[in-house]
UniProtKB/TrEMBL annotation:
Belongs to the UPF0749 family. The chain crosses the membrane at residues 20-38. This is DUF881 domain-containing protein. PANTHER family: UPF0749 PROTEIN RV1825, UPF0749 PROTEIN YLXX. The keyword Transmembrane helix applies. Keywords: Coiled coil, Membrane, Transmembrane, Transmembrane helix. Residues 57-98 form a coiled coil. It holds the Pfam family DUF881. Signal peptide: none annotated.
């Protein structure tokens, strides 16, 4: 008799092989999936530890550079403002000095024009006619003339006199002095000799200027005028009521 295979046995063998292969493929698939997942995780970790860190570092570096530039700009702005403040302070100081100079100049002009009363130390210069010599041909050679008075006044003003008076009458910028014989007329008022010229200022400076060698005093003495100097006197002069 011929041996015949049992169909049921063949089917069971095929099913067993299919199951085995399925398990094998399932395991392989799981292994592949796990390997792929692990690879993706490693790549993500690499990107985080590499690329992300680099980007973060670049961002911080950019912010630092930007802050440094801002600080530099602020320092330059602060320096400019400090220079501006110094210029303002210097300008204010100079303006203050100019205002002080202007005030002093205005005060000096008021003294010169006689608007303000003045008081202070100064120099008193007295001019007297010389002793008459009967043998002299011209008696005017021994008389004080307005030119002598002008010499003294001009020298005193040049030396810094703040105010000047003649025989107690204060003179100003428009004053006129005229000699009429033995008397002189100051702004319409006549005065006989001797003539006392008072000047307010630094006594030592005023006296030195009058006594300069070859200066005013020597010229007056050569013209037979008797000159007397009295420095350091306290002198007071009232303000002029009106200007002529």
């Amino acid at each position: 008799m011929k041996n015949r295979q049992n169909p049921n046995r063949i089917n069971r063998a095929s099913i067993s092989k299919s199951i085995v292969f399925s398990l094998v493929f399932l395991v392989l698939g799981f292994i592949l999936a796990y390997s792929y997942s692990l690879s993706q995780a490693e790549q993500a970790a690499e990107e985080f530890t590499g690329g992300a860190f680099f980007e973060e570092e670049e961002r911080f570096r950019g912010e630092l550079i930007e802050q440094q530039e801002r600080n530099k700009s602020l320092r330059e702005e602060l320096q400019e403002k400090q220079i501006t403040i110094q210029e303002y302070e210097k300008s204010f100081s100079n303006s203050e000095n100019r205002f002080t100079d202007y005030a002093e100049e205005a005060d000096a002009l008021r003294r010169y024009t006689g608007i303000l009363p003045v008081e202070g130390s100064g120099l008193k210069v007295t001019l007297q006619d010389g002793e008459y010599d009967a043998n002299s041909v011209n008696p005017n050679d021994y008389i004080v003339h307005e030119s002598h008075v002008f010499q003294v006044i001009n020298e005193l003003y040049i030396s810094g006199a703040q105010a000047i008076s003649i025989n107690g009458q204060r003179i100003h910028g428009n004053s006129y002095i005229v000699c009429t014989g033995p008397v002189i007329t100051v702004d319409g008022v006549q005065y006989p000799a001797p003539f006392t010229i008072e000047a307010i200022g630094k006594p030592e400076v005023l006296e030195s200027s009058i006594k300069l060698s070859g200066g005013v005093m020597d010229q007056l003495v050569n013209d037979n005028v008797i000159v007397t100097l009295d420095a350091g006197q306290k002198i007071s002069m009232p303000a002029l009521l009106s200007e002529s």
